[in-house]
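Build the 3D complex.
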Amino acid sequence: MKVGVTKGTLLDVFYDQDTHFEIVELPDYDSDLISEIEAIVAGRMSNEQLEKASKLKDIFIPFTGKNGFDLEYVEKLGINIHVSQIHSRYVAERALALALALLGKITFYDKEMHEGRWGKRNFGDRVSWDSIFDKKIGIYGYGEIGKFIHKLVLPFTDKVYAYNRSRKEEVNYVDSLSELINKCDIIFVATPISESTKGSVSKELMMKMKNKYLINVGRGAVIDEDGLYESLKTSNLAGFGSDVWFNYPKKGSNESTPSKHPIEQFNVVMTPHCAGFSMNAAEERYLDTLYQINELAKKKR
Amino acid sequence: MKVGVTKGTLLDVFYDQDTHFEIVELPDYDSDLISEIEAIVAGRMSNEQLEKASKLKDIFIPFTGKNGFDLEYVEKLGINIHVSQIHSRYVAERALALALALLGKITFYDKEMHEGRWGKRNFGDRVSWDSIFDKKIGIYGYGEIGKFIHKLVLPFTDKVYAYNRSRKEEVNYVDSLSELINKCDIIFVATPISESTKGSVSKELMMKMKNKYLINVGRGAVIDEDGLYESLKTSNLAGFGSDVWFNYPKKGSNESTPSKHPIEQFNVVMTPHCAGFSMNAAEERYLDTLYQINELAKKKR
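Done.
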């Protein structure tokens, strides 16, 4: 089996292992070599690129999100998509880190101290922070990532609720996103993007989040962009922490605003969709992907 | 029993409750009223102030640290000191928040994004972060705070070690601080300051912390100040997160540098000794102190 791998991916991980397949190094997805491969390691490809890959039967995404592909078109071509769930725990770690930084005002205090100030610690109007202990936690999307978030918050609180389309795990499910938000103090968004989740954290819901916090590690567009700005601006939402965004920098660029609105002026903690960039995660994800390809290659022999 | 309470403390908490003692409101510790009281709620008093409090038998510190008093002198005067342990869990929460922010580069990424940059996410030299999962955790000082830190890191790793003078808890103890540092990737300092702990995290030890992280929620001076700067400057210590410091702003001021050395230019996350300033913690600590005073007052009737 010929497997296309771009140079950007961790080729060393693949060459270090015994593999049951042949690696075809692709300079990029526009390369003519793409017409020879039966499988590919890729996170994002255009329909034009897929069309050129006439022998392609299996795409291995080295992370969870499938939104780098036109799934209908992929299905029409009869191509299978495989994802790696292994970095779910790092996404959950990012979620907890964002929550602790947002409620704990870590970014605020750290900036103060880098400039020689102390958050008014000697004064009556000192800046205080909020704890996660005994808070009611809501998890929107109770898949691998949601389950890991649950594990990480358990030492802080046993009041954990989940809203999910299917109900196959042992957790307190609620019947609607609205109920989840009403009930809980901190809402973690850990659901993938789909027609039904897009914009589902609506302006109406966020305007009812007075003294409540919203953390997003799912996909940016699960949250209504205008509603987020409005709820932050009017302090109906107490704070927002996110690793996923509405806008991303174009290829080859490091600059862009994450939203069309200036949300950075409010109580927000922002990271650049880097949950998957932990030092260990990259290698682990490629090893997991490699394992999956090997299993498929063995079957096909 | 007459109990002196300064206006700065949460008097409302006391007046809201049934108390078995008389509250004497002190404008400050230099007030002449201090000669009448048998007990006091205070975190810091000079020997001169103590000397004037001729009837004082019990000091109730509404937090853990006793270092606001000259303990030898207090003992000589025959005064008992009571502390509140109740905010230990918030100190532990601060410790985990600092660790996740430091290893997870939350403050770095957040600053980048507030300025429209993305941590080079589109490039091969993207800034990656380090995870706490499966790390070896060392806890220096395994009292109430240390035990809580242990609980909070358990979902991330079961490799937790402790160094403590006494060994009365169920944890893997090591024989020396040096062994703890050799063995572990992240060292949490949660020990009080004393003659034996002062400067005990020495330059020699920190210079051996290549790729290791140090978090301090004990007291600033447990760490050798010159050694910290040297180990950060030479990258022998990978990063430092702290809520406790070498210098504090003078009363009535919000400004001072936390160290005589410019440590803020290195990989550090800094908060202004605010572990006790969580919104719930203040009230909880005073309620706990109140409870302790009440118990004593009942006994004395």
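DSSP finds ten helices and twelve strands in chain A.
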